[in-house]
Amino acid sequence: MRIMSRSRWLILAVSLCLLVFSDGRELKIRHKSDHPLYNHTLATILVEYASAVYISDLTELFTWTCSRCDGWTKGFEVIELVVDVQHCLQGFVGMAKNLNAIVIAFRGTQETSIQNWIDDLFWKQLDAHYPEVPDAMVHSGFYYAYHNTTIRPAIIDAVKRAKEVYGDIGIMVTGHSMGGAIASFCGLDLTLKYKSQNVQVMTFGQPRLGNAAFASYYSKLVPNTIRVTNGHDIVPHLPPYYYYFPQKTYHHFAREVWLHSIEFGSLVYKVETVCDGSGEDPTCSRSVHGNSITDHLAYYGVNMGCDASSSCRIVNDPRLLGYGNRDSTGNLILSRDPATPLLKLNTEFDHRVEGMVHALMNASVLC
């Protein structure tokens, strides 16, 4: 009886301590790892870039004055903004002085079409050979979204111009959902093009891209890669992985960081698990059913989708054409000289606005 009584008192004491330290609020505990690749603070910064690239108002995005262009990303200077209207893709390249790095971000799938996109991923076969890599197969849609659209040449050109100004600094590539898939192909491409080890990739809720041969090749060339997954997010489970056909199925590359929660009564422990180097750690997101679209649309508490006011429509201001070109299919590339201070850029932009207003006033008088 005394032993039972002591046990009860011990449990009560521990519970009271937990309540005191949590101050009645949700208790948050994170598993920390000595793995050099994952940095929680960096993840909370890059997730804001992956969220901001969804903004459809190109004026606000290009001048970095949008509702999501604040917080950790404040002061970011966009060098190039590319919108491939034909394939519904969007990305930007810019300089983040607080990271001393070039940041590249790609937009994911639009919320209005995400269910259809997910349905298609269930049945998507490995249907494209990755060039010059024996037995490496990839998802043709993701591969061509980067390699065969307006995206790649615009990104490569912007990175080249940025390096001419800022030197051989690091490159960080990020994206959410399909944007994460494109970011991965971009990171691999930049590594091959610049023969550099200073390319870092961090994606959020990305799908599988290819088979085990491709995953192995990717991990060897771009080892500084983190794939963040969240709870029961459905997208990282797609296209499906069949463990009994390891060489014939889709296979994630490493390294996954799985965000999930453990409940203990009224307390919630938020855990960040750095997974093993296999890419398909059975104790991480693969240990649960991937059945949640809600978990796909928020990472680290940040909204990963289009701004509600625009429903993913592109808001195009005619004034922006002075900073870029539109081709015959409607694709738009906006760029600026990296050596031009952002303050001067905004002043020039304001002057163009004033000129447009005067022109409209004169036109009204003439009418």
From TrEMBL:
It comes from the Eukaryota. This is Uncharacterized protein. The lineage of its organism: Eukaryota, Viridiplantae, Streptophyta, Embryophyta, Tracheophyta.
